[in-house]
Design brief:
This protein is of the alpha+beta class. The protein contains two helices and three strands. Strands 1-3-2 form a three-stranded antiparallel beta sheet. A hairpin with a 5-residue loop joins β2 and β3. α1 packs across α2.
Amino acid sequence: SRGLGDVYKRQALMNQLKDQKIEQFEVTPEEFPAFQKAFMAFDTRKRVIGQAEKGGTLIYHYDQDTGNDGE
């Protein structure tokens, strides 16, 4: 189904962030429900930091350095 593909795409984006292949990505309000499903299933989601832009778009980046949190 399309919904599952969207979730998979978002997880792939978060993995690219984590692996430093991309610096950031954006999520529109329409995309947010699919993104949130992927986000909640993402193991290091505490490091995926979102910043709200005008119009409700969110820009996400990855916090590579959170100190030693046992990982």
